[in-house]
Write a structure and sequence with these properties.
The complex is a heterodimer of chains A (259) and B (259).
Chain A (H helix, E strand, L loop, with lengths): L1 H16 L4 H26 L6 H10 L2 H7 L3 H7 L3 H6 L4 H7 L2 H22 L8 H25 L6 H15 L11 H9 L3 H11 L6 H33 L6
Helix pairs in contact in A: 1-7, 2-3, 2-8, 3-8, 3-12, 4-8, 4-9, 7-13, 8-9, 9-12, 9-13, 12-13
Chain B lengths: L1 H18 L1 H22 L7 H22 L2 H8 L2 H6 L4 H16 L1 H14 L8 H27 L4 H7 L1 H7 L14 H6 L1 H14 L4 H36 L6
Helix pairs in contact in B: 1-6, 2-3, 2-7, 3-6, 3-7, 3-8, 3-12, 6-8, 8-12, 8-13, 12-13
Chain lengths: 259, 259
């Protein structure tokens, strides 16, 4: 069972990266998110009149998972439909929850690595002081954040079964993450409704937790990370529920394209 | 003949662009979300003229996004649809058709400035004051011209590549960063200033910002306008040379549809 799960996870990963090209990796997977991080950190230094950009390096490093968890993962079921594999998945006599979760295993790992890369580059470029940071807890925070972001990505992927405008949806979501997670400005600035939306999104708690780690405050860490993991579970279950609903409709109406 | 080709291509391009969800994101959702993001970031900046950075910054970022994901990507779309060879060999002339497409995209994308302004007024009740309307109407003309010439250069460069979608994703943020859409280029490290000043949108943005904030030194305004015009002529000559080079390459290797 577990072997099949990881073999499926590896196959998903292989399918996504089989056409790997170093230039594409350097430009799109590494260069673009790093330039975005630099842009928003410079913007913050101008608007907030500060040279201590730790908060924005933290926020934007976490947002570096957007490429993997939102744009790549969010499009997986649309890709399955595009490549004609969706009807095989629907017809396969296997549990769909492991199938949905398997597609998120490698994106979680790679997103974690990209966030670490963001911390290193952002730290070097903007002189972030890592000396007081508890590295073990920082790694745990990043893993929790990426698990939540992956759960959210799977939810978006399942939404892809219901709409043909995924480019629009994914791009809007990437901006919503910038606005509501506290990566670019404090969540307290948002109106009450905005603050409630922020609590429903992944990364909000992790960014807060990482900022607390930089301030050597560990007391509120556990509830924040537990909340982040809960978000991951809720979104993964929502993704599964949407997939099951779409599957039932598809079997009932014979609409394999599932729009 | 050329005029009717330009007009009909422009109208058709506007219709085609608006039909794509990604363009609708760039045109409508992007300025709204960017206005909110920039406003919240600038809110405590204690700058008198921060609204000009918010409204113009968000609008310009959206215009550039429209250009990146449409003008620069249209060649690839034509290639994918199998119509690239047809428009390339059409008696109307490939440069005229491409110019019509770029004109259509650029004019349509200008509406994102209005959307950004409307968002700022509706959400944040920002007062709208244009001190010198004469300059304010001259600056957008310069802006359209500068965006058009840089788009023709990009379109020509991307005609010879198969990785159009990769490059159009990768040029978006670096241009926003270098051209000072969201903050003055003085924030950038000094070694980047020559690159910024060599890009025509940098000067157009500067003129637009001067026009909004009130032109105190008219000679400085016209001096910058002259530099922008010279740069635009340089870009136009370069794109003309690129098209001739591309034409030679395409005729020698006969690989327009697969290069």
């Amino acid at each position: 069972m577990m072997r099949r799960f990881f073999s499926q996870a590896f196959l998903y990963h292989k399918g996504r990266t089989a056409a790997f090209h170093p230039l594409e990796f350097l430009c799109f997977d590494a260069g673009y998110p790093l330039v975005t991080l630099v842009f928003y950190c410079l913007l913050a230094s101008y608007t907030f009149h500060t040279t201590d950009l730790t908060h924005w390096v933290v926020g934007n490093a976490f947002l570096m998972c957007t490429n993997t968890c939102v744009f790549q993962l969010g499009g997986i079921f649309s890709s399955e439909r595009y490549f004609g594999r969706l009807r095989s998945i629907v017809a396969a006599p296997c549990g769909k929850l492991p199938l949905v979760l398997a597609s998120g295993v490698f994106p979680t790992l790679f997103a974690s690595l990209s966030v670490l890369g963001g911390f290193v580059v952002g730290g070097v470029v903007f002189g972030v002081d890592f000396s007081n940071l508890h590295l073990g807890l920082a790694v745990v925070t990043i893993l929790c954040a990426m698990t939540a972001a992956t759960g959210f990505g799977l939810f978006l992927a399942a939404m892809g079964l219901l709409t043909d405008s995924m480019h629009l949806v994914l791009n809007v979501v990437s901006y919503l993450l910038m606005i509501f997670t506290g990566a670019e400005f404090s969540v307290v600035q948002l109106p009450l409704a905005g603050q409630m939306v922020a609590q429903l999104l992944p990364l909000t708690r992790s960014i807060q937790a990482m900022n607390l780690l930089f301030d050597c405050q560990y007391s509120a860490l556990v509830p924040l990370l537990a909340g982040e993991l809960l978000i991951a579970v809720v979104y993964a279950l929502l993704a599964w529920a949407i997939f099951r609903t779409a599957e039932t409709m598809c079997r009932k109406h014979g609409t394999f394209d599932l729009f | 003949m050329i005029r009717s080709v330009l007009l009909s291509t422009m109208v058709l391009q506007m219709k085609q662009s608006f039909a794509r969800p990604m363009f609708r994101f760039s045109l409508i959702a992007n300025p709204i979300l960017n206005t909110i993001l920039l406003y919240e970031m600038f809110r405590h900046s204690q700058q008198d003229n921060f609204v000009s950075y918010v409204v113009l910054g968000a609008g310009l970022m959206a215009i550039w996004s429209c250009i990146c994901f449409s003008s620069a990507g249209d060649i690839q779309r034509e290639r994918y649809s199998g119509t690239l060879a047809l428009i390339y060999a059409a008696p109307a002339g490939f440069p005229a058709i491409i110019t019509g497409k770029i004109l259509g995209n650029t004019l349509l994308s200008l509406s994102s400035l209005l959307i950004s302004l409307a968002t700022a007024v509706a959400v944040y009740h920002t007062p709208v004051v244009v001190i010198r309307p004469g300059y304010f109407f001259l600056a957008p003309v310069a802006l359209v011209g500068s965006f058009m010439v840089i788009s023709t250069v990009l379109a020509a460069l991307l005609t010879l590549s198969r990785r159009t979608s990769l490059y159009m994703n990768c040029i978006e943020i670096p241009f926003i960063l270098l051209c000072g859409f969201a903050f003055p280029i003085q924030v950038l490290p000094a070694w980047l200033h020559p690159i910024s000043l060599a890009l025509s949108p940098t000067w157009a943005v500067d003129l637009l910002r001067m026009a909004v904030n009130g032109v105190e030194d008219a000679s400085l305004f016209f001096q910058k306008l002259l530099i922008l015009m010279l740069l635009s002529v340089g870009y136009a000559l370069f794109s003309g040379w690129l098209y001739r080079y591309m034409d030679r390459q395409v005729r020698m290797t006969a690989n327009l549809e697969v290069c």
